[in-house]
Amino acid sequence: PLSSNNNMSGFSGFAEFAKADSFASTTAAATLARRRQAESKKNSSVGDGNNRRNKFQPSPIYTGSDARLILLFRKIGQKRDPATKVRALEELSQCVFPPISKETAGSEAEDYPRSEKIAALCHLVFLHQSKLGYDNNFSVRAGSYKALTASKDHVPKAWMGLFVGESGDDTTFCPAATTVGMAWIASRGDPAAEVAKNAAAFITEIIANETEASTKVVKEATCKYSKAILTCKRASSLQDVINPTSAQSTSSGVSNKSTANAGKNKKNKAENAPVVNESEKEEMEECYERVILSVLSGVGWLVQCYPETIAAEQPYVDMESFPDSPSISRILQSSRGSFRREAYNLVGKIC
């Protein structure tokens, strides 16, 4: 410890008095060692902060090893049949994250180590943000919110780390901010009552302690998520926002010669673009309309519940200029009457 290095009152033997130069060199070496120790401690503390921030993150894969969870996530993330996904999500809520009470003590949920539950939560968050939360089947969306909420009592530290994160002066580092924004929007704007109910329960768990940090996370996450969604001009662009990994994979690992190869890369991207059939187009349009309408409605409710969100001093919100944004102006001129109607309602609440 640094304090022990500074303690010169103790007698460490006659050898240190044998030669003045030896004492001077020893003192200088000790001073240098203390400085290096202080710098190392400072750097390690910064590293620990980064590690703490990165400890809990949405994971594109299930990093655990439990055979049952592997099978469940295969059904949840890879199957197209809604009934299969709903049953798997229900099993996840009932068996892995059941309500904790005296009656459930000794249940099979205790057979899952904490590490497996954390891995399950991190992967579930990723699936929710990229698939489940946008599924056209309302039971899938509702089941996903239910499982996310149920996991809190089992891994509370990881849950709070993902959905509340660390609050700073002007912004909040929240690894799963997208899920928080999606949940608020769904709780106020999803057309399915069951989805709205389960999403509201999820939001209630976040703001249960009524701390400034948790409330700030909800407002900041909702506004950032809404602005990102409202920039989408068509269903295909919404898919790019929902699942940007496919777009990023084409650009990852590109060297400084990418400018020279831009035309070639663009051509290859067009050639490798997935072919969308009519059925998939209809599903994408259905999702696009529901999400845009939900966002417009949810933002209006955010302003009503938290009037301070339209204050100019909120750097992450800036809702005062929201009605003048290109996104709102475009939606106000949309050929879809439902879009125009909801956009006018939002502008009226903000102004």
UniProtKB/TrEMBL annotation:
GO cellular component: cytosol; RQC complex
Compositionally biased intervals (Polar residues): 244-255
InterPro entries in alphabetical order: LTN1/Rkr1
Annotated EC: 2.3.2.27
Gene Ontology terms describing biological process: rescue of stalled ribosome; ribosome-associated ubiquitin-dependent protein catabolic process
UniProt pathway annotation: Protein modification; protein ubiquitination
GO molecular function: ribosomal large subunit binding; ubiquitin protein ligase activity; zinc ion binding
Entry function: E3 ubiquitin-protein ligase. Component of the ribosome quality control complex (RQC), a ribosome-associated complex that mediates ubiquitination and extraction of incompletely synthesized nascent chains for proteasomal degradation.
Self-association and partners: Component of the ribosome quality control complex (RQC).
Family: Belongs to the LTN1 family.
Protein name in UniProt: E3 ubiquitin-protein ligase listerin
